[in-house]
Amino acid sequence: TAPLFCDPVSTTKAEKLRPILNRIHTLKPNKLEAELLSGVKIETKEDVAKAADKLLELGVHRMFISLGSDGVYAAMGSERLWLPNLPGNMVNTTGCGDAFMAAIGWAYLEGMNLKETALAGLAAGSIAMESAETINPAMSATAIKDRMKNN
């Protein structure tokens, strides 16, 4: 079967994922969605790790918890990474999360490891925010790879 990639997009919709957590390959919650799904109140960096561990225990294969200006926490198996956002010229943040999600799907198809996948997502988010348009016309696989290399 095809791997299931999910972005909860809201706490209301996140609740609908609870019964299928064990079937999700890749989950990209934000802090509030991760709290809701894991049952772990997130107030510290350690709490982020606890929430990720709980979601992995519940059957999620890998996750990327987006933490706004604090970057992303990635977890899979025994691997844990906390990566800062990549620099960029912020014009509009609309579409950054969608760009991140699309990039981690693309990175999976490219065979990238956890760190490379997280960097691809961060690179796509960084590129996305540099345009007034929701979808930056400069977004491409080459642009993502270049941004990953330069950071």
Describe this structure in words.
Strands 1-2-3-4-5 form a 5-stranded mixed sheet, with helices on both faces. Helices cover 42% and strands 13% of the residues. By secondary structure, it is of the alpha/beta class. Strand 4 and strand 5 (79-83) form a beta hairpin. Helix 4 (96-109) runs antiparallel to helix 5 and helix 5 (114-128) packs across helix 6 (141-149).
Please give a quick description of this structure.
The protein has 151 residues and is α/β, with parallel strands linked by helices.
Please specify the SSE layout and strand pairing.
Blueprint: E1 5-6, H1 11-14, E2 26-27, H2 31-38, H3 45-57, E3 62-66, E4 72-76, E5 79-83, H4 96-109, H5 114-128, H6 141-149
Parallel strand pairs: 1-2, 2-3
Antiparallel strand pairs: 3-4, 4-5
Helix pairs in contact: 2-3, 4-5, 5-6
Main attributes of the structure:
151 residues; alpha/beta; five-stranded mixed beta sheet; 42% helix; globular
